[in-house]
UniProtKB/TrEMBL annotation:
Protein name per its UniProtKB record: Glycosyltransferase
Pfam families: Glycos_transf_2
Residues in the signal sequence: none
A GO molecular function held by the record: glycosyltransferase activity
Length: 338
């Protein structure tokens, strides 16, 4: 269900800004002031109307109070606060759905993606009439070797699923036109993974290459467990290929079992049926592993069907400064979005 703001009618009569910068924020009390100090002069220097949509994803530190202070000093900084933590992709969804701008840029609050590239993205989109401009990481030297290897494997797999239209090393730092935003809003994805959905649209696109920097402050909010979860969501939300993999594994196990059956018959005919517990044990382990693996794949898809059938909202918005709600009473009138 889309509320008035998400339908684009909550602007109190003001014209829509040319640019919206969507920024998911979770427990960034150390990084956020540095990000604002670096981002604001860049946007002010563009000479255009803009807004910065800060999505507070249920922060538990001093981030909400800090965002309120920034909003008072910087009217273009808009606050959208979740009633509870819902995750990075849900925060991106809320920001994209609620942004008013003709162009929407998504960027994290840790300054690993340089805001200095935003003018270049906007200029490229307007000059070439592009709907999508990806921020592509040309150098990940600040990441650990493990992070670079796992990221490389992730993008290799995703390009196999989506095709070469998915840029290599392109994360969630991107620019979208209003046409691309409207297309994403019309898609009935329950758990969208924008790294795959945006390239899938096939809209005219370009790239801006940048050097990925170190986190400006604080610790990462994307540990290994969340990286694995993102990979699983990316594959299972976008492709049925793993189910076909289960079919091929079942066929492989059948061929292997048939070969073992032939071997057993030949051994019996030659009177060489010495008890071989090891081969039996290995065969049982193999079949059990294949069956459990296939059941796990089926469970992932059934779980997503169940979640979609429940139709629960992906997040609850407790406060949006564009709606003029009093932050002290915002939770009592929380809106929601599926």
């Amino acid at each position: 269900m889309l509320n008035a703001v998400e339908q684009g009618v909550g602007r109190t009569g003001e014209p829509a800004p040319l640019l919206s910068v969507v920024m998911p924020i979770y427990n960034e009390q150390e990084a956020l002031p540095l990000t604002v100090r670096r981002l604001r002069p860049i946007l002010d220097g563009l000479g255009i109307t803009y807004e910065v949509v800060g999505i507070d994803d249920g922060s538990t530190d001093a981030t909400p109070a800090l965002m309120q202070k920034i909003h008072q000093d910087w009217p273009e900084f808009r606050i959208v606060r979740f009633a509870r933590n819902s995750g990075h992709q849900a925060a991106l969804t809320a920001g994209i759905h609620r942004a008013f701008g003709d162009y929407v840029v998504s960027i994290d609050a840790d300054l690993q993606d340089p805001p200095e590239k935003i003018p270049e993205m906007l200029s490229l989109a307007r000059e070439r009439d592009l709907d999508i401009v990806y921020g592509v990481r040309g150098d990940r030297g600040t990441d650990t070797i493990f992070k670079r290897r796992t990221a490389g494997a992730y993008y290799w797999l995703m390009r196999k699923l989506v095709g070469k239209k998915m840029p290599n090393q392109a994360g969630d730092f991107r620019l979208l036109s209003r046409a691309a935003v409207d297309a994403l809003k019309a898609m009935p994805e329950h758990q969208p993974v924008y790294r795959l959905l945006v390239p899938w649209l096939g809209f005219p696109s370009g790239e801006v290459v940048y050097v990925r920097e170190e986190r400006v402050a604080g610790s990462t909010h994307y540990p290994l467990s969340k990286m694995v979860r993102l990979a699983v969501d990316s594959v299972t939300n976008f492709s049925a290929s793993p189910l076909r993999l289960a079919t091929w594994l079942g066929l492989l196990s059948f061929v292997l079992c048939f070969a073992l059956g032939v071997y057993t018959v030949v051994a019996y005919a030659l009177d060489k049926t010495v008890p071989g517990w090891s081969s039996l044990f290995i065969g049982m382990l193999f079949l059990g592993a294949v069956q459990l693996f296939c059941m796990g794949l089926l469970g992932e898809y059934v779980g997503r069907i169940y979640s979609a059938a429940q139709a629960r909202p992906a997040y609850f918005v407790g406060y949006d400064s564009a709606e003029g709600t009093d932050p002290a009473t915002a939770r009592r009138s929380a809106s929601y979005t599926g």
